[in-house]
Amino acid sequence: MSNTFFAPLDEQWEPTRATLHAYAKGVGAIARAHAVPHPKWWHISLKVRPNGLVTDNLPVPSGGSVALRMDLVGDSVVIESSDGTASSVPMTDGLTGTEFADALIAAVAKYGLEGDYLREKFVDETPREYDPQVATALMGVFVNANTVLERRRATLGDSVGPVQIWPHGFDLAFEWYGTRMEQYEEGGEVQAHPAQLNFGLYPAGRAYFYSNPWPFEGEALLGVELPHGAEWQTEGWKGSVLYYDQVAADPAAETKVLEYAAAVMSAALPTLEG
């Protein structure tokens, strides 16, 4: 395995990462309004493809569809239509998240897509910085992390969701669903949801891979030692972390991340099955 499988991240990446995060929220708001709704909200996410971070197809009123693609190599969000036309909004102009989302909304309106967008999902008044070299490198991180997550996902059978980037956190993850059912209250109604285990990459700050069982049964988990420097997390949120810098540029990085994910699964599985 290449020793550059996971390129090192440092503080110089953060302004560009934060810009992409802010702009992804605008992309997600458009997908939320126009993609075919999925009960688990998968329609608002982005998927990693070789040419960028891509929405689901968004049906247009006149027939056909468009998709939005965050091109981290070409430095723009591209709107591609099934009729063969395309347009783009550059990510290099220093726009705030709000300004960028408004530009996207104007661009998709030309294809007949109009709606009541949830502006609170993307309002952001911070002028944004964008370094094309960092964006290209971050695309490489997402592509390789996506490969690792897909390798893990392929071992888990049918009770898994897709690997996807969630715009609100700009993290890449998938979910595995256990057989234990948990009740929780939402909107004044009691809902039932299967226990689950998330596995993903969060690239902000000190970037990390995470694997989080829900519900988190601390008594069963906290005494389990995790491999390769991974540790349990209980402050702020509950789960486990393997920091990206603990495996970056390591020739065995992919193996170590997969072994970490398997160890959390082994520890949590008895708590997730009913």
Describe this structure in words.
Helices cover 29% and strands 27% of the residues. It is α+β, with helices and mostly antiparallel strands and 274 residues long. It folds into two domains: 11-121; 132-272. The strands form two sheets. Strands 1, 2, 3, 4, 5 and 6 form a six-stranded antiparallel sheet that branches. It has a six-stranded antiparallel sheet with strand order 7-8-9-10-12-11. Strand 1 (47-49) and strand 2 form a beta hairpin. The chain is globular, with a radius of gyration of 19 Å. The two termini are 38 Å apart. The model has no long low-confidence stretch (mean pLDDT 95).
Largest sheet: 6 strands, antiparallel
**What percentage of amino acids are in beta strands?**
25-35%
Q: Distance N terminus to C terminus?
A: 38 Å
Count of beta strands: 12
Helix content: 25-40%
Question: Which key phrases capture this entry?
Answer:
globular; 274 residues; alpha+beta; 6-stranded antiparallel β-sheet; 2 domains
Present the secondary structure layout.
Elements: H1 14-34, E1 47-49, E2 52-54, E3 58-59, E4 65-71, E5 76-81, E6 86-90, H2 97-109, H3 132-153, E7 164-166, E8 171-186, E9 189-202, E10 208-214, H4 218-221, E11 231-233, E12 239-243, H5 253-272
Antiparallel strand pairs: 1-2, 2-4, 3-4, 4-5, 5-6, 7-8, 8-9, 9-10, 10-12, 11-12
Summarize the structure in short.
This protein is of the alpha+beta class. The chain is 29% helix and 27% strand.
